[in-house]
Design a protein that fits this description.
By secondary structure, the protein is an alpha+beta fold. Helix content is about 35%, strand content about 25%. It has ten helices and 13 strands. The strands form three sheets. It has a six-stranded mixed sheet with strand order 5-4-6-3-1-13, covered by helices on one side. Strands 10-11-9-12 form a four-stranded antiparallel sheet. The chain has a three-stranded antiparallel sheet with strand order 2-7-8, with helices on both faces. The longest helix is centred in the C-terminal third of the chain and has 22 residues. Bound molecules: adenosine-5'-diphosphate and magnesium ion (MG). Adenosine-5'-diphosphate binds next to strand 6 and helix 2.
Length: about 375
């Protein structure tokens, strides 16, 4: 059957799903070190309508791309076989089959308002929405962590990005009104209430609209550096180095690895501090932790850039309680924790600072903790 009309009978299983982008409050570059993270799902999400096909074709369309649908043969999917944006949804179908699930093709129409390439995880949103749709339509019964692991494997093995699991876990497992306290080793998770409005606070997101070219290669190199440091220390992962043992451990490492290790260990501790503050209802005290996290990413891990540094600096100077880059770095977005009545002032101060530096106008919006992947139709 090759005529798409003939497989579009009303009986074909179909539906609509949504999976969100995310910001991460604290815990950056800790996930691939088996550490803690604290992401929050955004109201912005990838939405997908999916209708199963019986002819082995995967037809992918995105409202955010030019041109018609990309048509692929499910049987021919292999890592490296798909170029461009279609590799993200195709990766999920390939991974499901590689994991032994007997799934075939579908018509997939994607419409997402997650800014792309902005460190807000538009890629994981696409992967997770397709994974959730396939799991439901095929009755696979995959739970949240299973969907996230599958989507991460899709990005690692098919797309070719050696990412950790935070983005996918956030997109699947976050819940409305909460941050997700996640132990990326073993995926133990806890929903931590994040009642920003109740505390008179807002979480401002600044998308700097820049993504520097070195991002991809640098990520893999940093990850390799962390793994080398853990091996030299005889540890399974840097997560296993307690803050109390940090100084002694640094002395045993080559100079170039020391700042990486210092970032991971202190950042992991900052996640625990942040969760303790949220549990105690002291949301405002999160501010300085965010700013300390940014300093660590800037000075030790060296993944910030002039644009994210300026956004943090301008936000804090204008009265933000704290600010930091979110996502992998080298551009992308910054989050700032602000008192509700200073939201506009802080956003305007960042925009003015960007104009003064000759940077493109940043996009600013407020993050409200939203729900993870779910069926919408
Ligand atoms: P991030 O995940 O931080 O947004 P990535 O570089 O990991 O950045 O992923 C961005 C890529 O994901 C885009 O270049 C595009 O290939 C794909 N993508 C994201 N959203 C969409 C969309 N709505 N339509 C098509 N492709 C998308
Ligand atoms: Mg991504």
């Amino acid at each position: 059957m090759t005529d798409s009309q003939s497989v579009h009978d009303g009986a074909a299983p179909a539906g609509a799903w949504a999976a969100p982008g995310r910001v991460n409050l604290i815990g950056e570059h800790t996930d691939y070190n088996d550490g803690f993270v604290l992401p929050v799902a955004l109201p912005q999400a990838a939405r997908a309508t999916v209708r199963l096909r019986t002819d082995g074709l995967l037809r992918l369309h995105s409202a955010q791309t030019d041109g018609g649908p990309v048509e692929l043969s499910v049987a021919d999917l292999a890592p490296g076989s798909v170029e461009g944006w279609a590799k993200y949804p195709a990766a999920v179908v390939w991974t499901l089959r590689a994991a032994g699930h007997e799934v075939g093709g579908a018509d997939v129409h994607i419409d997402s308002d997650v800014p792309t390439g902005a460190g807000l995880s538009s890629s994981a949103a696409i992967e997770c929405v397709v994974a959730a749709a396939y799991s439901d339509l095929h009755g696979l019964g995959l739970d949240g962590p299973a969907l996230a692991r599958l989507a991460q494997r899709a990005e690692n093995e098919f797309v070719g990005v050696p990412c950790g699991i935070m983005d996918q876990m956030a997109s699947v497992c976050c819940t409305e009104g909460n941050a997700l306290f996640l132990d990326t080793r073993g995926l133990a998770q806890r929903q931590v209430p994040l009642d920003l409005a109740g505390a008179g606070l807002r979480l401002l997101v600044v998308d700097t609209r820049v993504k520097h070219d070195l991002a991809d290669g640098a990520y893999a190199e940093l990850r390799a550096g962390c793994e080398r440091a853990a091996a030299l220390l005889g540890l399974p992962a840097l997560r296993d180095l307690a803050p109390a043992g940090l100084d002694a451990a640094l002395d045993r490492l080559p100079v170039e690895l020391r700042p990486l290790v210092r970032h991971v260990v202190t950042e992991n501790a900052r996640v625990e501090q942040a969760v303790a503050l949220l549990d105690a209802g002291d949301l405002a005290a999160l501010g300085p932790i965010l700013t300390a996290g940014h300093a660590s990413l800037r000075d030790d891990y060296r993944v910030s850039c002039p644009e994210t540094d300026l956004a943090v600096e301008a936000a804090v100077a204008a009265g933000a309680l704290g600010a930091r880059m979110t996502g992998g770095g080298f551009g992308g977005s910054v989050i700032a924790l602000v008192a509700a009545d200073t939201l506009d002032t802080v956003a305007a101060a960042v925009t003015t600072a960007f104009a003064g530096a000759g940077y493109a106008t940043p996009r600013t919006f407020t993050a409200v903790p939203a729900a993870g992947a779910h069926r919408i139709g």
